[in-house]
Amino acid sequence: xxxxxxxxxxxxxxxxxxxxxxxxxxxxxxxxxxxxxxxxxxxxxxxxxxxxxxxxxxxxxxxxxxxxxxxxxxxxxxxxxxxxxxxxxxxxxxxxxxxxxxxxxxxxxxxxxxxxxxxxxxxxxxxxxxxxxxxxxxxxxxxxxxxxxxxxxxxxxxxxxxxxxxxxxxxxxxxxxxxxxxxxxxxxxxxxxxxxxxxxxxxxxxxxxxxxxxxxxxxxxxxxxxxxxxxxxxxxxxxxxxxxxxxxxxxxxxxxxxxxxxxxxxxxxxxxxxxxxxxxxxxxxxxxxxxxxxxxxxxxxxxxxxxxxxxxxxxxxxxxxxxxxxxxxxxxxxxxxxxxxxxxxxxxxxxxxxxxxxxxxxxxxxxxxxxxxxxxxxxxxxxxxxxxxx
Length: 390
What we know:
Layout: H1 2-20, H2 23-36, H3 40-65, H4 69-76, H5 80-111, H6 115-131, H7 135-160, H8 165-173, H9 180-191, H10 195-206, H11 214-244, H12 254-292, H13 299-303, H14 305-322, H15 330-351, H16 355-358, H17 365-389
Helix pairs in contact: 1-7, 1-10, 1-11, 1-12, 2-9, 2-11, 2-12, 2-15, 3-8, 3-9, 3-10, 3-11, 3-15, 3-17, 4-5, 4-15, 5-6, 5-12, 5-14, 5-15, 6-12, 6-14, 7-11, 7-12, 9-15, 9-17, 10-12, 11-12, 12-14, 15-17
């Protein structure tokens, strides 16, 4: 029983982490490293601190209330849960089209497979996870394996790229420039939109809830952010190593370019493996979490949850195959997710003080203060980003 509980906690953490580490995550990290250089380390540091503050607040409220985010929001303000669910599902579908395409690109780089065929094959693999009778267990195991593969490969590429670690460490605390777009994009890409709730909703489904579970919930939340951040740091160092050697990164496929410049043709194949692993786990995380936002609205939806998840993946794939993915939106998508974040987090902060939702639980004041600061900072940065976009 204890081993099963530990597996679920690790699975929830990795579901959140691998949901974050998708094609957009890889692209964003390489693009911003190219534009900011070693100073991008500061952006990563700030985003990690924000990510941890967000996840601890949200996962705690979900665990204590034993309710999913949409139900908490509806108890706070009727209709709010439906509004947030709409944003999450539409955003999740848009991201999933890119995720399916990213999986196809990964298999093309790895095996030379046609992108469309690769996308369909990856979707079939993701669907197979939810066709399993023990879908939750299958999902936990699959994300653990894929996460382990990504970490090993990026460690190797980071080592052979010979990054200037000293300069990266210095500029992490003493940056030469600060980019608000980069910060909000990273936060949005790591804990924005559906990603924020992926692990928390997984714990609800597994029955790991209540005040007694909070220490474990906290560890799982921090683990999820840590894994995603560790992968980003490794990719940042690999990209920085390539840049510091004076090599030019191809803007058409920046992450693939980094892997190839660092490790030759084998590096390009390894990029394909990482891209596939990142994309297919994001397909799973996006579909699972998006449907979890509507499953409590009707007993029929909850009863047919796995079928709807499969349908969600199939629709995403059909749209990619027939129309194509929005190639230029990978960076902007993270920023849009970052805009959703203040709405979701402020809802949870208020809910944490409603006895009808959390009973006699008292949210630590430090968490509330940190959460409130994050809402204010993210709102201000969101306004600045959209003013710049307009």
